[in-house]
Amino acid sequence: MFQFSNDQAIFEIGGVRVGGQPGQLPTVLIGSIFYHGHKIVEDDQAGIFDTVRAKSLLDQELKHSRRTGNPRIVDVVAAWPQAMRRYISFIAEATETPFSIDGATAEVRIAGLKRASELGLVHRAIYNSISPGFMPDEIAAIQNAGVKTAILLAYNAHNPTLQGRLEIIQQLLDAAAGAGVTQCLIDTTVIDLPDPGPAAKAIHHVKQKYGLPAGCGAHNSIDRWNSPKHLDQTTYASAATVANVVPMTMGANFLLYGPIEHAPQVYTPCALADAYIAYSARQEFGTAPLTDSHPLRRIFKRSQPAAPAKVLQ
Fold first, then answer.
1. What gap in Å lies between CA 42 and CA 110, rounded to an integer?
2. Which pLDDT tens digit goes with each residue over 35-85?
3. Would you call 84 exposed, middle or buried from its count of C-beta atoms within 10 A (0-12, 13-18, 19+)?
4. What CATH topology corresponds to 10-300?
């Protein structure tokens, strides 16, 4: 295991901490709900859905989060403003955890910002995402809503390589600062089938240069690979596990793991990887988990004293 040579920011979002050195905090897992094609959605324009099934999925994920010690963030996906407003209202009542406002367009995301502000939920809200090509009204809407946390999507269409990802980040950080965002989470972007490799390496570079929490959605690669190949369930689960764990070994602080239905297959492997990483960091660097609910303690029932966290604003 390794330790970054610079200070690593730890941000708090609605009671969930994300960031730090390897072994300090468990990886935050982000599952998506109400995504395109989600069977619980009955009318994606109006935002009508099966509330009982939605609550069941959220409760199932929460159970796995509590069991492993990996915190969760709920990724709220919508394609229409009215739907986004309804979804956020539901999530506000059904959960106490942070959520990301993940709209298909800036108009949808802005509607989500306004609803989160109306409900007094900006402390739990994450704007997902500020990406290249952002519009000025997006930046103004984030600032007006008072949301302080955003995911920055390091997607470089002109140079979709490791270096291209890194080249775009400063532009995104400048835009986030203009929006009043003080907590930036860097998504190093997975688009192509083998992209979890470069995306994982980019996470390492981001943390080494900026000290910011970083992660990615490695499941995108497996979903694209699976579509034409029709992988069986066991093979798909194994492939998804590898895709998620590789970024963790490079320092990832969060993972967008895809549909919330996948929680039973995602939490245990990621928790086990977190435990291995933390145990190695403890032996080599004396790094102690900063929470008693770290997977190292949940899985192996170990009890080491926690050191105080250094939170960078």
1. 23
2. 999 999 999 999 999 999 999 999 999 999 999 999 999 999 999 999 999
3. buried
4. TIM Barrel (3.20.20)
